[in-house]
Amino acid sequence: MNPLTPKPDISESEADVMKPDWPTIRTHYESSDESFRQVAARFEVPFDTIKKRSSREKWHKLAEVESAPVPNDGTSTAHSVENGTANSIGTGMSADNGTAEMAPVPENGAANGTGTDPVAQNGTAEMAPVPENGTTHGSAPIIVSTAPKNGTAPTIPADINTLDRLAAAQFYFNTLGWAIHPLFGPDRGEPRERGKKPVLKAWRQHTAADINSDDLAKCFGPGSDHNIGCVVRPPFVHVDLDSKSDAGASVMEWLATMPELAVVPRERTGGGVHLAFICRDLPETMLKPKQAPTCKINDKVDAELYLNSLNLVLSPSVHKSGHQYTWEVTGEIPQVSWVQLCRWFGFSAPETKKPGRPRKEKPWWSKWSENLRTLDLTAVMTKLGHLGECLDADHAKWSVRCPWEHEHSGAANKTPGSDAIIFNVPKTMPGFRCLHSHCEQRGIKDLLEWAEERSP
């Protein structure tokens, strides 16, 4: 089956009974700082089984980017970002805006970058093959991006805007390990979906392991009009800042007040920008989103967080407005914490719902130890001096002096009238009603509470 052709959707019930996706589990262990026990709990597999399998297949942790030593040849090594700015170490001169200068992409437009796959003699990037067993990472609870494995930091190169769609798609996949997939062009589909709607039906399960060079050539080569989409996978996240009413002008004004975000790789969109980050400590509740979490930065600027399994449009795609996506800030993609993302943009993790049904509020009459159906309300009102005449013996209807007659308009009655009544039919809940507007919302509950206060 062609990996980039539509595949049937997998229901949750079917996914639950599928066997563990060991390639995904291994990739997650090797690229994260989690222990075997944590990975076993995350993917719901036995701890002993994962230990035996890792020993047999010789699993090894990948070198942490931030702790990798500086090579003797002076190539750059990334550092973790504490204050939100990206730093690089190397012999290359930094650009004026603080972004690291990258080695140029070959003139033929093919990306060899820092990916682990070899570059073919014709200059085109060789794609990672689909696993022979036909399985994909889509069946796993969490899918990890196949980020560069040679110790260099994921980087958006300075000359990326010179690449055509095919070369750009090859770079995103081969160098960054992103799960690239085709989107319909800006002139197809419903107005709200133009330029953004995925071609694949099962795109949420799409991973970098599903891609090969022939697929990319068919989708993005000469004669095609597809936009480039990316199914975001950890540890990458993207923040979409929008102010559609002014085509992104308010977004740029806000960014001017945030110097800590000045060197973050930034892609200009039709209504604002995309900012690219690496975040390795996202809360568990954020890893299975149905849609991008959103928050409002100010009256004009909105922020959306694109993370695991969500679809993002990439340069040089064309927006339905005719705007072409471009990278206006390039350089290393910084590693940031979840706390930093929350502080900058206002995101927050959804509250975890406690299992079980919520407790129902007890009815008002449950606080009475006696059975109110057997209450002799006429005797109560007699004792309190508020009972009047019997108005209807068959329905046990009595006039009473309203306890709140001081709130009524006009002078108080000398004797109880028919404007306030009680019902005291045996074996039924007693009732109270007053015709004055001040007592419109009062009933038997209020009358009994008043009587309890007067004579407990």
Q: Concise description?
A:
The chain has ten helices and 18 strands. The protein has 456 residues and is an alpha+beta fold.
Structural account:
With 456 residues, this protein is an alpha+beta fold. It has ten helices and 18 strands. The protein has helices at 12-16, 22-31, 36-43, 47-57, 165-174, 213-220, 249-255, 338-345, 377-383, 444-454, and strands at 77-78, 88-89, 155-156, 179-183, 227-231, 236-242, 266-268, 272-279, 294-296, 302-306, 311-314, 326-329, 331-332, 335-336, 387-392, 397-400, 420-423, 431-434. Strands 6, 7, 8, 9, 10, 12 and 14 form a seven-stranded mixed beta sheet that branches. It has a four-stranded antiparallel beta sheet with strand order 15-16-17-18, covered by helices on one side. The N and C termini lie far apart (80 Å). Residues 6-17 and 63-141 have low confidence and may be disordered.
Describe the SSE topology.
Blueprint: H1 12-16, H2 22-31, H3 36-43, H4 47-57, E1 77-78, E2 88-89, E3 155-156, H5 165-174, E4 179-183, H6 213-220, E5 227-231, E6 236-242, H7 249-255, E7 266-268, E8 272-279, E9 294-296, E10 302-306, E11 311-314, E12 326-329, E13 331-332, E14 335-336, H8 338-345, H9 377-383, E15 387-392, E16 397-400, E17 420-423, E18 431-434, H10 444-454
Parallel strand pairs: 8-14
Antiparallel strand pairs: 1-2, 3-13, 4-5, 5-11, 6-8, 6-10, 7-8, 7-12, 9-10, 15-16, 16-17, 17-18
Helix pairs in contact: 5-6
